[in-house]
Design goal:
The chain is α+β, with helices and mostly antiparallel strands and 230 residues long. The protein has nine helices and eleven strands. It has two domains: 8-150, Jelly Rolls, CATH 2.60.120; 153-227, Winged helix-like DNA-binding domain superfamily/Winged helix DNA-binding domain (Arc Repressor Mutant, subunit A, Orthogonal Bundle).
Length: 230
């Protein structure tokens, strides 16, 4: 796992949430921030743990998930560098409703709740930016719920693959992609069983739209994938 020290204040100042803060405000946040090296597979926090702040990913990958009554894991979100999580729980003063696990060696910053609340008292604009970030997260969860309710499994998988395609890509050349996590984790994120996810990938490959090699993908026909109805 990389151990090169980072300049916490510089990293925070480049995050959209903190970009408009003064150097003094950034330094105060940095003083209330601690670094955590989380090895692949390690749990950062468990469901039911007390929330004492929120986290920002510097590098690596984190999944948020919970186990259903029948013991099946449901992945809520997969996040990478620059993503933050835990803000809503921090404001609600509730325990975590999910657990957090590293999917790769990861460095996260934990910004203490007391530090965040002090900055909100000093700067109402900071509070507005926090609310905007939470609103974007809520919009994403509503979009997920809409997809689970109204879209077929095939539509969800196609949408997931197309979201990873660079802007402006067409069917003229293959687009190379790599899944950010295992197929079982991605399947859970899309509210599919691993078997159903694999069947859909096989179906798309049989249609000549994608090629799959482990976690590496080639989208052979972007326009055709957009039009595919199964």
């Amino acid at each position: 796992m990389p151990t090169t020290p980072i300049k916490v204040s510089k990293f925070l100042s480049n995050l959209p949430l903190f970009r408009e803060l003064s150097a003094g405000e950034i330094e105060r946040l940095a003083q209330g921030t601690r670094e955590s090296q989380v090895a692949r597979g390690q749990i950062l926090f468990q469901r039911g743990d007390r929330c004492e702040g929120f986290h920002v990913i510097v590098y690596g990958q984190i999944k948020l998930a919970f186990n259903s009554a029948d013991g099946m894991e449901k992945v809520v979100e997969i996040m990478g560098p620059g993503h933050s999580f835990g803000e809503a729980v921090m404001f609600m003063d509730k325990p975590y409703p999910v657990y957090s696990q590293a999917l790769a060696d990861t460095l996260v910053l934990h910004i203490a709740k007391a530090t965040v609340f002090e900055e909100i008292e000093r700067d109402p604009g900071f509070a507005r930016r926090m609310i905007a970030g939470l609103s974007r997260r809520l919009h994403g969860l509503i979009s997920d719920l809409e997809a689970y309710t109204l879209q077929s499994g095939t539509q969800r998988v196609i949408g997931y693959l197309l979201n990873a395609v660079p802007d402006g890509a067409t069917g003229e050349a293959p687009v190379e992609l790599r899944l950010p996590a295992s197929k079982s984790v991605i399947a859970s994120r899309l509210n599919l069983t691993p078997e159903h996810f694999s069947r859909i990938l096989h179906e798309l490959a049989e249609a000549g739209l994608i090629r799959v090699e482990g976690r590496s993908f080639s989208i052979l026909d972007v326009d055709g994938l957009r039009r595919y109805e199964g």
